Amino acid sequence: MLIYFFILAVMFFASVFIYSSKYKHLLVMFLSLEFMVLVLYLLMMFYLTEYLSEYYMSMFFLTFSVCEGALSLSLLVLLVRSYGNDKILIFDNLW
Fold it and tell me: CA–CA separation, 57 vs 41, rounded Å?
């Protein structure tokens, strides 16, 4: 069981590294953010099934993560339609 936590921790920190290193492309940032949410969900499911036997919190977490994914996708589509690319440098035009 400890090896699963180690693998998930490595996956989480890899997604944090990708999120912080690929800050210019919005699509890659959103994908790494979704990967972080997936890893956190798996960690939460391991914890809840092992210690608490409760699944209600996981449904709330999945609901909020789906809403976050839909909002990020709509923001990405809006920016690509407006400016033609997903680079973060286009935010300089907004200020």
Answer: 10
